Amino acid sequence: MIEWEDLRKQARKLENDIDLKLVSFSKLGTGTANTYKSNDSATEPLLSTEHVFDSVAMEIEQLLTKLTSVNEKLGEIASGEAGSGPAMLHTLQRHRDILQDYTQEFNKTQ
Predict the structure, then answer these.
(1) How many structural domains comprise the chain?
(2) Helix (H) or strand (E) holding 1
(3) Which member of 39, 55, 75, 84 lies 3.0 to 4.6 Å from 88 by CB, making a disulfide possible if both were Cys?
(4) Which domain holds residue 73?
(5) What is the CATH number of the domain that holds 84?
(6) 55: Cα separation from own chain's centroid
(7) pTM of the full predicted structure?
């Protein structure tokens, strides 16, 4: 059961990190779209914004991959536990739902 709790803590931390990154990513996406619309000939800010946007996107992808891995480990524990009750299954489903929501939001913003 200790492994389950450790993995849940990891999942919650990753979920929080992803949430914060998605907020920043969404703001960057809006800023990038606005930069494309402007007729300013200075391209340096555009390149910087694009670089930051790509960098944050890569960080989010890595966090989503880690969260997927943690969720898979939680699933293995839940399916292997003789005493895995409704609470454990509900928790696992909740983490899966959060991952799905974050993945959809990331893909939509990208």
Answers:
(1) 1
(2) none
(3) 84
(4) 2-109
(5) 1.20.58
(6) 14
(7) 0.82
pLDDT in tens, 6-48: 999 999 999 999 999 999 999 887 765 554 444 455 555 555 7
Task: Give Cα 84 distance to the centre of its chain.
Answer: 27
Long-range pairs for 70-77: beta carbons < 8 A, 24 or more residues apart: 70/7, 70/10, 70/11, 70/14, 70/95, 71/11, 71/95, 71/96, 71/99, 73/7, 74/4, 74/7, 74/8, 74/11, 77/3, 77/4, 77/7
Q: Give burial (CB, 10 Å; 0-12/13-18/19+) of 65.
A: exposed
**Quick one: tokens of 39?**
């007729």
Distance, in Å, from the CA atom of 7 to the CA atom of 3, rounded to the nearest integer, reads: 6
